[in-house]
Amino acid sequence: MEAPRAVKPTLVPPDWGEPLPRSFYERPATAVAADLLGHVLVHAAPDGMGAGVVVEAEAYGADDPASHAFGGPTPRNAAMFGRAGRAYVYRSYGVHWCMNVVTGNEGVGEAVLLRALEPIAGLEAMRRRRPGALDRDLCRGPGRLTAALGITGALDRCELTEGGVWICGAHVRTGEVLARPRIGVTRGADRLWRFCLSGSRLLSRR
DNA sequence: AGGATGATTCTCT
DNA sequence: GAGAATCATCCTT
User: Among A64, A94, A139, A173, which has the minimal tally of Cβ within 10 Å of its Cβ?
Assistant: First the structure.
């Protein structure tokens, strides 16, 4: 089955740079997670573009008991076993969407969960999509950032290298990268695979 | 067919 | 900080 495509943007901010190349994602999830910090996630949503700097991300690797991929492919986690550089978007607690970027080698289930962004563009669209939220809470949390950007399961398995939804290297990293335990996981809780930009006030679970 | 679980969020107190 | 909401997904009968 062909991977779905996001709507192509009609206007790309000229100084944000090209989407990160596939080679960026074809590395271990921990390396990708740490390196994603400071880059910009963009979604050219039909109801308004939004963008934010990645300030928090979690790696889910091979042989990782906390990973959805642990135990092999299923219909839900199929994207994790696909090509690096695609999205893996899943429904959490029946109501929220969470977005990952697929990493590593095809056939191996790996991904990086995007946990928090610092909004930098499209704030009005984000506020529309998250009525009642404080600005600093718009993208603070994995389910919140997808809601703010208009990202849903329709983007599962979508290529992040072609535009529509993508990550680019617009921002220079500010602050150092902290490694912390992942949130909400029971097994594999000892692995420090949650990466945060130090100094950000916009991390999830303040 | 049924039950347990969960990479969460919101609303209280 | 605790508890509810809420349901897709997966595993066990």
Answer: A94
